[in-house]
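Hi team,

As requested, here is the filled-out complex form for the adenine run. I kept the field names the same as last time so the parser does not choke. Let me know if anything looks off before we queue the next batch.

— J.
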Amino acid sequence: MPDVLRIDVVSLFPGVFPGPLAESIPGRALERGLAELRSHDLREWGLGRHRSVDDYTYGGGAGMIMRPEPAAAALDAVRGDDGFVVLPDPGGEVFSQARARDLAARPHLVFLCPRYEGVDDRIRRMVDLELSLGDYVLSGGELAALVVIDAVLRLLPGAIDASSTEEESFTAGLLEYPQYTRPPSFRGERVPEVLVSGDHAAVARWRRDRALERTRRHRPELVGPEPGSGPVSGRTEGGGRPARQSGGASGRTARQGHDRADDSDRWDPGE
Ligand code: ADE
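And here is what came back:
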């Protein structure tokens, strides 16, 4: 892990940053100097008197797309020797906890946030990774960059209490188990007896069972079928790992092909 993670964001709306990243866990990580976040206005590298950064699509089509020259000039200015450039894009690799860990271990991240209807395809050759939040279309890359940066900042050593991550590690790969605080009874629902029993082994078993149950209900692809629930019991194809979606038809860069996150370790929502 680097001592201080440097994060540069290039956007037409640099005022969006740090936004929510100034609060709570990411805010503290930035305050403690675990990372430095800088945002840059893409228009600084815009063309001509109007600092233009977009143009019509060759071949016809609705909307304007981002021209390559301002993006190239911006990246030349901010990526340095060690910048790993991420392009938020619905056609990219689907963001995962494994990718968050991979990004948190790098010394310098650069986010190039598209607006408009997309980017000139030659921009994809300038980036190391295209990253999608999921199969839906946002108005631009800024919100996606905020989400990715938040997930990365909380992984930096010193950002959150290590004991809370250790405590949750035994349910790695599962959704969170239910938790309760006071009062012991609320609107007729009591805190499960086992949680106040003082029997630590029973509490651990109960938590794991509930986490499994919740995961089977909401994200069955993370765990595979319940034993004995169908004609084929046991492991699914792919070992019950999270399904990775291709996320669309957009081309991946050659560099991306060599730069996949190691997803051999399962998603750990408790990390
Ligand atoms: N830009 C627009 N939609 C996006 C998505 N789903 N993920 C990442 N960046 C995007």
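Two things worth flagging: Residues 233-258 have pLDDT under 50 and may be disordered. DSSP finds seven helices and nine strands in the chain.

Thanks,
J.
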